[in-house]
Amino acid sequence: DALIFLPKLIFTGKELIGENVERITRRMGDLRDVFEDKAAFEVMDPNLIAYHVSSIFPVKEGTPGGLFMGITYLMPGKVGDEYFMTKGHFHSNIDRAEFYWGVEGEGMLILMNEARDVWAERMYPGSLHYIPGGIAHRVANVGNSILTFAASWPSDAGHNYGIIAREGFARRLKEVNGKPELI
Ligand code: S6P
Ligand code: ZN
Questions:
Q1: Which residues of the chain carry a pLDDT beneath 70?
Q2: What is the CATH number of domain 9-182?
Q3: What is the pLDDT of residues 113-122, one digit of tens each?
């Protein structure tokens, strides 16, 4: 827990905490739809923490023109031959873009357009990723240590988890001979 930094928001000169800053935790039990190997999933502790997200909301969700920022801490691990990863989503306002940037650890940013073409970008400390509108995004931790990355997205983007929960990504990132490969 000491590793998890909860940012403070400096908002036009005032420091705001509380309702403007939120930390959510996703446990294995919340990621039932994510992994392919159901047998490997069932023997895992549903309370095991997969990731935390500390987010900052300077304006109300849905406000046009504002920005949000969040830091994700994704634990290392695998379910079968798939790495621990985030749920992944399109934005509800599907044309809204987002920046991701790598802070510590090694990851892969997995991207999919509406035609279901899938590709991936390597994340590492200092890597910067522009995710255009219309692109679903999910991150896998492919290293042996915590993967920390930051994100900034428009305050009227919203999150659509439903499509990915139902249909997944068209390709899966698996460990093959010790290396990540999209299959
Ligand atoms: C929000 C942004 C990130 C994710 C976070 C967890 O637009 O993309 O802050 O929320 O990385 O991923 P997910 O898919 O579970 O929300
Ligand atoms: Zn997003």
A1: 1-19
A2: 2.60.120.10
A3: 999 999 999 9
Say if ligand 1 is within 6 A of residue 68 CB. no
What's the CA gap between 128 and 95, in Å, rounded? 20
Domain ranges for the chain? 9-182
The ipTM is: 0.98
Report pLDDT for 169.
Answer: 98
Shortest-distance Cα residue to atom 11 of ligand 1: 72
- Quick check: 118 and 182 in contact, CB under 8 A? yes
- Residue 63 contacts residue 54 (beta carbons within 8 Å): no
Rounded distance between C-alpha atoms, residue 5 and residue 53, angstroms: 10
Nearest listed ligand to the Cα of residue 74:
1
